[in-house]
Amino acid sequence: MEFSPIPFYIVSALVIICAIAMIYFKELIYSALSMVACFMAIAGIYILLNAELVAGAQVLIYVAAISILVIFAIMLTRHRKGDFWLFFHRQSVVTLPFVVVAGIVLTVVLATAAYDSSEEALNPPDEEMARLLFQDYSFPFEVLSLVLLVAIMGAILLAMRERRR
């Protein structure tokens, strides 16, 4: 499939809109649902870039697992609203100059970079990616699953502790 910039720009704008909405919603569940939409749009970008396996992993890991975990934590802790200024207070004044400088540097680097788009992207086949994941990197894959299991157990323990109060 040939790359077309117009759908890429549309889906990229959707990612940015969902990310901004995730920050500005006061209801935490709406922020979590906006995060799900953002993750789905990122999977759409991967599909537009002919990386179907990465898009599938994005949907399975982030949309399914991480989003469900976040929504589960919101429902267990019974925190429904988060004030906007809870997240943006004194650190904003310190952080703003760094963000502006990083944005300027990123813009200059991207504007002056020489891109050679004449070659086709080298995407390994799905079988090669699966072999790498389940043979060469099977131990880190299992360690990651244990870390996720510990995170779920910690969320359950925190919810049980809060319920006793």
Name given to the CATH architecture of the largest domain: Up-down Bundle
Mean pLDDT: 83
How far is the N terminus from the C terminus?
57 Å
- Biggest sheet overview: none
Per DSSP, the total helix count is: 7
Shape: globular
In short:
The protein is mostly helical and 165 residues long. The protein contains 7 helices and no strands.
Structural commentary:
It contains seven helices and no strands. The chain starts with a helix and ends with a helix. The protein has two domains: 81 residues, NADH-ubiquinone/plastoquinone oxidoreductase chain 6, subunit NuoJ (Four Helix Bundle (Hemerythrin (Met), subunit A)); 42 residues. α1 packs antiparallel against α2 and α3 runs parallel beside α7. The model has no long low-confidence stretch (mean pLDDT 83). The longest helix has 27 residues. It is globular and about 65 Å long.
From the structure above, extract its key features.
165 residues, Four Helix Bundle (Hemerythrin (Met), subunit A), 2 domains, globular
What's the structural blueprint in terms of helices and strands?
Elements: H1 5-24, H2 28-48, H3 52-77, H4 84-87, H5 90-112, H6 126-136, H7 138-164
